[in-house]
UniProtKB/TrEMBL annotation, chain A:
Top-level taxon in the UniProt lineage: Bacteria
Protein name: Uncharacterized protein
Transmembrane portions of the chain: 54-73, 85-107
Entry annotated with the keyword Transmembrane helix: yes
Keyword Membrane on entry: yes
Protein keywords: Membrane, Transmembrane, Transmembrane helix
Species this protein is from: Hyphomonas beringensis
UniProt-annotated stretches for the region Disordered: 120-148
TrEMBL record, chain B:
Organism: Hyphomonas beringensis
Protein's cellular compartments: Cell membrane; Membrane
PANTHER family: HYDROGENASE-4 COMPONENT F (PTHR42682), NADH-UBIQUINONE_PLASTOQUINONE (PTHR42682:SF4)
Domain NADH:quinone oxidoreductase/Mrp antiporter transmembrane span(s) in chain numbering: 116-391
Primary residence: membrane
Protein name: Cation:proton antiporter
Cellular component terms per the entry's GO annotation: plasma membrane
Membrane topology: Multi-pass membrane protein
Molecular-function annotations in GO: NADH dehydrogenase (ubiquinone) activity; oxidoreductase activity
Superkingdom per UniProt: Bacteria
Length: 148, 587
C-alpha cells in the first residue's frame, strides 16, 4: 500500500504526508470481501446480531418519552381532535400499520407477472460498463399486449 | 440590471446551450457548458428586477411577454436552475450528446415557461418540455422504454393540445392572453386549461404516464425528469387557479392513493414516481386553499416552499437510486439489499433525502410541509388535514424507510459493487447540503429555513411563521417515531410484506390492456366483417341501381307509352303546390 505512494508526495517532514495519503487510500479501498471501509465506520454496528433488538427497544422507549412529553408541552392546534394527548403518535402508528397491512390484499389483487404488459425491459444502456453482467433469471420473455 | 442581458429569459440561455450541446462532440467542453449555463442563469435571475416586463412584443394584436419575474416565478425558476446544475454534475461521467443537450434544453423550457407572461409563450415552452424530455426515456435503449416514451409523448402532447384549445377560448372571451388567475371553472377555456395542467401535474386517473415512463428512463434521465414537468404544472396552477376548492380535494386524494401503490411496488424508481405523485398532491392541495382566484398566503407559501424542497430532495432520492442502478443494473427491491457495505456514501445521501421527504425536523421537508399543514388546519378542512397527516406517515413508509432499507440494508443481496462515481457523489452531496441548509433553524438570522422563507411569494407572512415551536417539533416527532415503531414491530412480527417481483396494475391498464385489447379485437372483427359488409353493400346498391334504371332510364318503364291525362293533371297539381310553398316561405 505504502509502496504505491510516490516518493515525491512527501514534504520535508516526510512521514506526515505519507500517513495522510495512506489513510486516504485506506478509506477508499474496499476490503477483499468488497466492503467499503467507510461502511464499517458508519454502519458497522448494524451487523451486530442484537442491533435489531436494540433498535426495537430504542424506538419503543423514544415513543413513550414523546407521548409522555406531550403532557407537559403546550400546543397550538387548529384541529380539535389534535388536542388529544398522543393523537399524532396514535395517528402515525395506525396510518403506517394500515398502509403496510393493506399491502397483503392489494398485492394479491393488483400484482401480475413482470411480463404482463409484454417485454418488461432490462436496465438502461447507460449503466456502468464495468458492471459484471449476470444472466437474466427470467429467461426469455413471452411477448404479448401492446409491446408484442 | 439594464442592457441586453436584462432581457434574456434565463430559460432561453439553457435552451440555446442545449442546442449547441447537441452538435458539440468535445465531451468536456459540452459538459462544462451544461454546468456553466445554470450558474450564469442563476446570476442573471438574481439580478433581474421583479414585477416588470423585461421583454415583450406585440404581434397579430396579441401582447407577448417573453420574460417577466415576480416572487412566485422566482422561487420556481431558482429551484429549476439549481436542479439543472445538480443534474449536469450528476451526468458528468456519461458521454451522450443527445442526453446532455436534451436535459439542459428541457430544463430551459421549464424555466422559460415559468418566466413567460402570456399563455401562448407558456404553451410553446410547455410543448418544448414534452418534446425534449421524451429523449431522456428513449435513450434508455430498451424496447419497454421505447413504448413507454411513445405513450409519454402522446399524453404530453394531448396536454398541450388541450392547453392550446383552452387558450383559444380564453382569447375569444377575454381578448388578451396575459396569464391571469381564473375566477371561475365554468367557462370552457378554464376547464380545458385546468385539464391540460392536471395531466402534467399527474392528477388521479391522469397520473400513470409518470409511473409508466420515469422508471424506464436512463440513469440520468430519471433524475432530470423528476424535477421539471410536474412542478411546472404546480407553478401554472398556483398562477392560474389559486383558491379553487376542487384542487383541495384533488390534492388530498393525490397524497393518499399513491401510498398504497408504493407499498407493493418492487421497482424502487417506480416507488419514487408514486412518491412524486403524493408530494405534488400536497402542493396542489395548498394551492386550492383560500379565496377563489386569490389563494391563501400561508398555503401558497407552503406550495412554493414544498416545490423548492421537493425538487431537491426528490432529485437526491432519484440520484441515489440512479447510482444503485448504475452500479448494480437494477432498482428492484427484491434483487437489492446490503448495498451500504459497498456504497456507504450513497447510503448516507439517500438517508438524508429520505429524512427530508419524510419531514424530519432539521431537514427541508419539515420547514416546507409545515406551512401547508398549518394552512389546511387554519382553513378548517379537518378531513383533508387528516388525509394529509395519513399521507405523511405513508411518505415515511415508502420514501423514508422502504427506499433506503430495501436498497442498502434489509436482506443482503451479496452484491459487492464500487461506490458511485465521484461526480454522482458530488451532486448528491450538494443536494444533501441544500436539504439540511434550508431545514435547520435560523441560528444566524437569514440563514437556515429563513433563507427559503425570504424567497417565498408572501414574504412577510412567511417570516412571521416559525416551524420550530416545541409543540410542532414534538408532534411531528410523535408522528414519525411511532410510524417507525410500527415498522420495526411489523418487521419483528413478520407481518411486513416481502418484496416480490411483478408489475402492479394501475390506471394505465385501461389503455395498455383493455383499450389495446379493444382495438385489436375491433381490428380482427373488421378484418372478417369488412369484406362481408362490403359485399352486402355492393349487392344492395347494385339492386337499387338496377331498379332505378328499370324505371327512369330511356329504356325504363316510365319512358314507355304516351302521357295520360291523369298524369298531366297530377303534375300540374304538384307544380302548383311547389309554387304555393315558395310563396309562403318567401313571404
Amino acid at each position: 500500500m505504502s509502496d504505491e505512494t510516490p516518493n515525491d508526495t512527501r514534504d520535508s517532514n516526510g512521514r506526515f504526508v505519507k500517513r495522510a495519503a495512506e489513510t486516504a487510500h485506506r478509506l477508499h479501498t474496499p476490503s477483499e470481501e468488497g466492503v467499503h471501509p467507510v461502511a464499517k465506520i458508519l454502519f458497522g454496528w448494524t451487523e451486530n446480531k442484537r442491533s435489531g433488538t436494540f433498535i426495537f427497544w430504542g424506538v419503543a422507549v423514544l415513543s413513550m418519552v414523546l407521548i409522555v412529553a406531550d403532557l407537559g408541552v403546550p400546543r397550538h392546534e387548529y384541529v380539535e381532535i389534535a388536542h388529544a394527548t398522543g393523537f399524532y403518535a396514535l395517528w402515525g402508528f395506525c396510518s403506517f400499520a394500515f398502509v403496510v397491512l393493506m399491502g397483503w390484499p392489494l398485492a394479491r389483487l393488483l400484482r401480475r407477472k413482470e411480463d404482463y404488459y409484454g417485454d418488461p425491459g432490462g436496465p438502461p444502456v447507460d449503466i456502468d460498463p464495468d458492471m459484471p453482467v449476470e444472466p437474466s433469471a427470467e429467461g426469455t420473455y413471452h411477448y404479448e399486449g401492446d409491446e408484442d | 440590471m439594464t442592457g441586453p442581458l436584462s432581457m434574456l429569459n434565463p430559460g432561453w440561455l439553457l435552451i440555446a446551450v442545449g442546442i449547441v450541446a447537441l452538435f458539440l462532440p468535445m465531451r468536456r467542453v459540452r459538459q462544462g457548458l451544461t454546468i456553466a449555463a445554470p450558474i450564469i442563469a442563476i446570476v442573471l435571475l438574481s439580478l433581474a428586477d421583479q414585477n416588470i416586463n423585461h421583454l415583450s412584443a406585440q404581434a397579430m394584436g396579441i401582447d407577448f411577454i417573453f420574460y417577466r419575474v415576480d416572487s412566485l416565478s422566482f422561487i420556481f425558476g431558482l429551484a429549476f436552475l439549481l436542479a439543472a446544475l445538480l443534474n449536469a454534475i450528476y451526468a458528468w461521467h456519461t458521454d451522450d450528446r443527445l442526453q446532455d443537450g436534451m436535459a439542459i434544453a428541457y430544463a430551459g423550457a421549464a424555466v422559460a415557461a415559468t418566466f413567460s407572461g402570456d399563455m401562448m409563450s407558456l404553451f410553446v415552452f410547455w410543448e418544448l418540455t414534452a418534446v425534449t424530455s421524451v429523449f431522456l426515456i428513449l435513450r434508455a435503449g430498451t424496447r419497454a422504454a421505447y413504448f413507454a416514451s411513445m405513450r409519454y409523448l402522446a399524453i404530453q402532447v394531448l396536454s398541450g393540445v388541450l392547453l392550446l384549445a383552452g387558450i383559444a377560448y380564453v382569447y375569444h372571451s377575454r381578448g388578451d392572453l396575459s396569464i391571469q388567475a381564473f375566477t371561475s371553472l365554468k367557462e370552457p377555456g378554464a376547464i380545458l386549461v385546468f385539464i391540460a395542467l392536471g395531466i402534467k401535474a399527474a392528477f388521479p386517473f391522469l397520473h400513470n404516464w409518470l409511473q409508466d415512463s420515469y422508471p424506464k428512463a436512463t440513469v440520468v434521465g430519471a433524475v432530470v425528469l423528476s424535477a421539471f414537468t410536474t412542478k411546472l404544472a404546480v407553478y401554472a396552477f398556483a398562477r392560474m387557479f389559486p383558491g379553487h376548492d376542487a384542487l383541495i380535494w384533488i390534492g388530498a386524494v393525490m397524497t393518499v392513493f399513491p401510498v398504497f401503490f408504493a407499498v407493493i411496488e418492487n421497482d424502487l424508481r417506480k416507488v419514487l414516481a408514486y412518491s412524486l405523485n403524493n408530494q405534488v398532491g400536497f402542493m396542489i392541495c395548498a394551492i386550492g386553499l383560500g379565496a377563489t382566484g386569490v389563494g391563501d398566503a400561508l398555503a401558497l407559501n407552503g406550495a412554493s416552499a414544498h416545490a423548492f424542497c421537493h425538487i431537491i430532495y426528490k432529485g437526491l432520492l432519484f440520484m441515489s437510486m440512479g447510482a444503485v442502478l448504475y452500479r448494480t443494473g437494477t432498482t428492484k427491491a427484491s434483487e437489492l439489499g446490503g448495498l451500504y457495505k459497498s456504497m456507504p456514501w450513497t447510503t448516507v445521501f439517500c438517508i438524508i433525502g429520505a429524512m427530508s421527504i419524510s419531514a424530519f425536523p432539521l431537514f427541508s421537508g419539515f420547514a416546507a410541509k409545515s406551512l401547508t399543514m398549518s394552512a389546511v388546519g387554519h382553513e378548517g378542512y379537518t378531513v383533508v388535514w387528516l388525509m394529509l397527516l395519513f399521507a405523511s406517515a405513508g411518505v415515511l413508509e415508502h420514501s423514508g424507510i422502504k427506499i433506503p432499507y430495501f436498497a442498502f440494508f434489509g436482506h443482503d443481496s451479496g452484491k459487492r459493487v464500487k461506490e458511485a462515481p465521484f461526480n454522482m457523489l458530488l451532486a448528491m452531496g450538494l443536494a444533501s447540503f441544500i436539504c439540511i441548509a434550508v431545514g435547520i433553524p435560523a441560528i444566524v438570522p437569514g440563514l437556515g429555513y429563513e433563507w427559503l422563507y425570504n424567497l417565498l411569494p408572501y414574504r412577510e407572512e412567511a417570516m412571521a411563521y416559525n416551524p420550530f415551536t416545541l409543540g410542532h417539533v414534538l408532534t411531528q416527532m410523535q408522528l414519525l417515531v411511532l410510524a417507525i415503531f410500527a415498522f420495526v414491530m411489523l418487521k419483528r412480527l413478520g407481518w411486513y410484506p416481502a418484496e416480490k417481483p411483478g408489475v402492479v396494475l394501475d390506471t394505465d391498464w385501461v389503455y395498455r390492456k383493455a383499450g389495446y385489447g379493444l382495438f385489436t379485437w375491433a381490428g380482427t372483427i373488421w378484418q372478417k366483417a369488412g369484406p362481408a359488409m362490403t359485399a352486402v353493400f355492393f349487392k344492395l346498391t347494385g339492386r337499387a341501381y338496377d331498379r332505378i334504371e328499370d324505371t327512369f332510364s330511356p329504356r325504363g318503364e316510365l319512358a314507355r307509352g304516351r302521357l295520360g291525362s291523369a298524369m298531366a293533371i297530377w303534375t300540374a297539381i304538384l307544380l302548383g303546390l311547389v309554387l304555393l310553398l315558395a310563396f309562403i316561405t318567401s313571404s
